[in-house]
Design a protein that fits this description.
Chain lengths: ~425, ~325
C-alpha cells in the first residue's frame, strides 16, 4: 500500500544504525522535520503514527546495477515489478542496465523508462546510458544528451568492447562531460563462450572456462585508458583477487577509479556449480574461495567502494536447459536484505558500514551532492528494517517471473549461511509512504 | 550444498547412468563383473539374451555419432530390446523446439530407456532431472563432460589384460581439455585405484587445475611414457587448429604423436588404447595403432558387453523399484 504524505508522519520508537536508543522521526510533506530521542517526542495531533519498535531506520539503498527487463524482455520482469521488488528490499534508487531491447541509447527510451517508473511508484529508477549505439561497440551513443535526459552514467552492460579505439574515444568523450563510465572488465575474446570460472569445478564438469585473465587483461586496458583520459571509471562487479590488486594499485596512483562487487560474489564460489546447478550461473562468474575471500577483504579495507545486486530476473524457461544453455543471472531482490545482514559477521564491518557500501558510497559515485535520505531538512528517503523477520522462499510459478535464485532452491544451511532474516516494513520515498 | 545426484533412485540404486564421478568403486566393479558375463554372449551362435524383452530403447542423438550409436543399438538388440533411432541432429531442435519439449514428446512415445548424446556439458544431468521417473537415461556423451560407457569399456579392456588396477601407470595423451572420454577415464581410473594417472599434452589442451581430478601433468610425452602400463590416445579435432590451440597436426604428431620410438619407452607389454576415430599420423602412428600392443578394436568389441551390462543393471533396478513401490 502506498499513501502520499501530504501532512505529517511520525515514526516512533525506531532505532538508528549507529544508535540503539529509540528515536522519533517526524516527516512533514515528505521532508524530515526532526530526528530526536523518542522520550522527547510528542505526537502531533493530525499525524500518521508508525510504531517501529525493534526496527531500524536505514537510509535508502542505491543499487548501482540491476536489470529491469523493460523495454523488450517483459516476460522476465517489468519496470513495475522490479522497481517494487527493489523497494521491498530497501532500494530507493536503482540504476538500471542499458541492456534492454532496444538498448538505452536514445532519449526516447530514457523517457519511456522514467515515465513507467514514475507511474509504477516503486524505487526511483535511473537509467544507465548505453555507451555505444545498440551496445554494438562501434558508434558512441549521444552521451551528453542522454546525461541531460537523466542518465547518471554510461555502460556497455555485459557486452565487452573489443575495439580499443572506441574505448579510448568513449572515455575521452565521457570525460568532457564528467560522465562516469560503468565498465565490467571482461575481455571480448578470452573466455568468450565460457560459462564458469576456469578452475577445478569447470574442469570436472567439462564446462568452458572463463579464466581470471579474461578479467585482468580487460581491466589493465581500462585502467591504462583511464590513466590517459582522466575519465571517471567505475569498475562494475569485480570478481577476482588479482583484479582487486590492480584496482588497489590504480587507486594508490590516484586514478579516478571506483569499483563495486555483486552482492552474491561475497557469498558464492564456483564450488556451488557441482551437479550443474544453474541457479548459480552468473555472467560475472563465481570464482574460487580465495577470490571470494579477497572480495570480502576488499570490502573491508575499502578497495571495493560499493555493493550492487546485479539483479537479473528471468522467466522459468531461462533455466530449463543444460547448464551452458541456461541464461546467466540471479534475481537478487527477494533475498538481498537477509544476505546483506549476514555481511557484518563475514566481512568484519559494522552493519552501518555495510549499509554505507549500499547507500552513501554508491550515491557518491553517481552524484556527490545526494543526501543520505535520513537527514533533517532533506527529503525522506529511508526504510524501516526488521532485522529478525524471517523470509520465505519464493514460490516458482508461471505467473511470477524472477524466482531464479539459489535460495529458492536450497535452504540457507545447505549453502553454509545462517538463518535468513530481515525485511523492510515501510519505505519513504518521493513524499510517499510505502507499506511493504 | 549441491543438487542431489540424479543417478540414484529412491532405493539408492543406479537409475540413470550419466556420470562415473558420482559412483563408487563397488558399483564400477559390479558393472565390470556383469560385463564379463555378457562378453560370452557375443561368442554364441545365438547372440541374444532375453533380459530386456518387451522393452523399448530410444537412441536420442543430438550430435552425430556412428560407432557409439551402433554399439548401443547392438547392445540393446542382444538384450532383446526393441530399438528406436531418433535422429535429432536434423530434427525438431533445428526448428527451435526446446530440449525439454523434445524430451516430453519422446516421453509420450512411452519408451523405457533413453540413450542420450548431446553437445552441452550437463545435458544428461538436465534430462535425468526432468524426465519421467519411468524412463532410464544412459549418457552417450555430454559436451566435454562425460562419456561414461566409453570410460567403463576402457576399464573393462584394461582389466581383461592387466587384472588389477592398483599397480598400473596409465598415460593419457593429447586433448584432455575438450575430451569427455578423458574425464570419464580419469574418474574411473581414480575410483578403481589406479597406481598413477599421467596426462600429457600442450598446456592449451590441459584444463585448469586438472590435478584436482587426481592426475599428474607430465611435461613431455617421453617422460610420461617411461614405465607406462597403459597408453590412451585421444582424438585431436581439426577445429583445434582453427582456434589457435595447436599450430598443426604435423607439429602435434612431432611432439605428442605415439610413434614406435616413443612406445619403446613404455613397458614392453603396455596397452595402446584409443576411443576412435583415430587420426593416423596425428595422434598415433599407423604401425602402432595396428601393432600387437594395440587393443583399439577390442575396445570396440567390449563396448557391446559393457553397454549390455549397464543397460541391464539399470533396467533391473527399475524393476526392483516398481516392485518396492507397488
Amino acid at each position: 500500500m502506498t499513501i502520499s504524505i501530504d501532512n505529517i508522519v511520525t515514526v516512533r520508537r525506531v532505532k538508528l544504525l549507529d544508535n540503539d536508543a529509540e528515536h522519533s522521526i517526524i516527516i512533514r510533506d515528505g521532508i524530515i522535520e526532526s530526528i530526536q530521542p523518542d522520550s522527547q517526542a510528542a505526537d502531533e495531533s493530525d499525524s500518521v503514527v508508525i510504531d517501529a519498535q525493534n526496527q531500524y531506520a536505514v537510509p535508502g539503498l542505491c543499487d548501482l546495477y540491476a536489470r529491469l527487463r523493460e523495454p523488450g524482455l517483459t516476460r522476465k520482469g517489468s519496470i513495475a515489478s522490479e522497481s517494487h521488488a527493489a523497494l521491498a528490499a530497501g532500494f530507493t534508487k536503482v540504476l538500471c542496465s542499458p541492456d534492454t531491447q532496444p538498448a538505452i541509447d536514445s532519449v526516447a527510451t530514457v523517457q519511456l523508462i522514467r515515465q513507467r517508473a514514475e507511474a509504477a511508484q516503486g524505487a526511483h529508477i535511473l537509467p544507465i546510458a548505453a555507451l555505444t549505439v545498440g551496445l554494438a561497440g562501434e558508434q558512441l551513443s549521444e552521451l551528453a544528451t542522454l546525461q541531460a535526459a537523466g542518465c547518471p552514467a554510461a555502460s556497455q552492460a555485459d557486452i565487452p568492447l573489443s575495439n580499443t579505439n572506441v574505448l579510448f574515444s568513449a572515455m575521452e568523450y565521457a570525460a568532457s562531460f564528467s560522465l562516469p563510465l560503468f565498465m565490467t572488465a571482461r575481455d571480448s575474446q578470452l573466455g568468450a563462450g565460457g560459462c564458469a570460472h576456469a578452475g577445478a569445478m569447470a574442469t570436472r564438469l567439462g564446462l568452458p572456462g572463463i579464466p581470471v585473465a579474461a578479467e585482468t587483461v580487460a581491466l589493465a586496458r581500462l585502467l591504462e585508458v583511464c590513466r590517459e583520459t582522466d575519465c571517471r571509471l567505475h569498475i562494475s562487479r569485480v570478481s577476482s583477487a588479482r583484479a582487486l590488486h590492480m584496482i588497489s594499485a590504480a587507486k594508490l596512483a590516484s586514478l579516478p577509479v571506483t569499483c563495486d562487487v555483486g552482492l552474491h560474489h561475497l557469498f558464492f564460489t564456483d564450488d556451488q556449480l557441482a551437479g550443474y546447478d544453474a541457479s548459480f550461473n552468473s555472467e560475472v562468474p563465481f570464482r574460487s574461495i580465495a577470490d571470494r575471500d579477497a572480495l570480502r577483504q576488499g570490502l573491508y579495507d575499502g578497495t571495493i567502494d560499493a555493493i550492487c545486486t546485479d539483479h537479473a530476473p528471468h522467466d522459468r524457461d531461462a533455466s530449463l536447459a543444460p547448464f551452458p544453455a541456461t541464461e546467466p543471472g540471479l534475481a537478487a531482490y527477494h533475498w538481498a536484505l537477509p544476505l546483506i545482514l549476514q555481511l557484518p559477521e563475514l566481512v568484519g564491518l559494522s552493519l552501518r558500514d555495510v549499509f554505507d557500501k549500499l547507500s552513501s558510497a554508491p550515491k557518491s559515485i553517481i552524484d556527490g551532492s545526494l543526501s543520505s535520505g535520513l537527514e533533517v531538512g532533506k527529503a525522506a528517503e529511508f526504510f524501516l528494517l526488521s532485522k529478525e523477520s524471517p523470509v520465505a522462499a519464493m514460490e516458482a510459478s508461471l505467473e511470477s517471473a524472477g524466482t531464479n535464485h539459489p535460495l529458492n532452491v536450497h535452504g540457507a544451511e545447505a549453502l553454509g549461511l545462517k538463518p535468513l532474516l530481515g525485511k523492510a516494513s515501510h519505505a519513504f520515498l518521493h513524499a510517499r509512504l510505502h507499506t511493504l | 550444498m549441491s543438487l542431489p545426484d540424479p543417478q540414484f533412485n529412491a532405493l539408492g540404486e543406479l537409475h540413470h547412468f550419466i556420470d562415473i564421478d558420482g559412483l563408487d568403486k563397488s558399483l564400477l566393479t559390479q558393472i565390470l563383473d556383469t560385463a564379463e558375463g555378457f562378453a560370452g554372449v557375443n561368442d554364441r551362435t545365438i547372440k541374444k539374451v532375453p533380459l530386456l524383452r518387451g522393452k523399448t530403447v530410444a537412441n536420442l542423438f543430438f550430435e552425430n555419432s556412428t560407432r557409439t550409436r551402433t554399439a548401443f543399438e547392438l547392445a540393446a538388440i542382444r538384450l532383446s530390446a526393441d530399438i528406436l533411432n531418433v535422429d535429432l541432429v536434423t530434427s525438431s531442435t533445428k526448428k527451435g523446439e526446446s530440449l525439454l519439449d523434445t524430451l516430453h514428446v519422446l516421453e509420450a512415445l512411452q519408451c523405457d530407456m533413453f540413450v542420450v548424446r548431446h553437445g552441452d556439458s550437463g545435458a544428461a544431468h538436465f534430462i535425468a532431472r526432468h524426465v519421467s521417473p519411468s524412463i532410464n537415461i544412459i549418457n552417450g556423451g555430454d559436451g566435454q563432460h562425460s562419456h561414461p560407457t566409453q570410460g567403463m569399456l576402457d576399464m573393462f579392456t584394461i582389466r581383461r589384460h592387466k587384472g588389477d588396477f592398483s599397480n598400473l601407470c596409465v598415460v593419457i595423451i593429447g586433448d584432455i581439455r575438450h575430451s569427455r572420454v578423458a574425464r570419464s577415464d580419469i574418474s574411473a581410473l581414480v575410483k578403481l585405484g589406479a597406481g598413477e594417472v599421467r596426462v600429457v599434452g600442450p598446456r592449451t589442451l590441459i584444463p585448469a587445475d586438472v590435478e584436482s581430478l587426481g592426475v599428474t601433468i607430465y611435461p613431455t610425452l617421453e617422460k610420461a611414457l617411461i614405465g607406462a602400463d597403459v597408453i590412451m590416445g585421444l582424438r585431436l579435432q581439426k577445429e583445434r587448429m582453427a582456434t589457435a590451440t595447436v599450430p598443426s597436426s604435423g607439429e602435434f604428431y612431432r611432439t605428442y604423436g605415439l610413434t614406435p620410438a616413443r612406445l619403446a619407452l613404455a613397458k614392453p607389454d603396455a596397452l595402446i588404447m584409443h576411443p576412435g576415430p583415430t587420426n593416423r599420423g596425428v595422434e598415433i602412428a599407423g604401425s602402432v595403432a595396428d601393432g600387437k600392443q594395440s587393443v583399439i578394436l577390442e575396445q570396440v568389441t567390449y563396448g557391446i558387453a559393457v553397454r549390455m551390462a549397464i543397460m541391464s543393471i539399470v533396467m533391473g533396478n527399475a524393476t526392483n523399484l516398481r516392485r518396492a513401490q507397488s
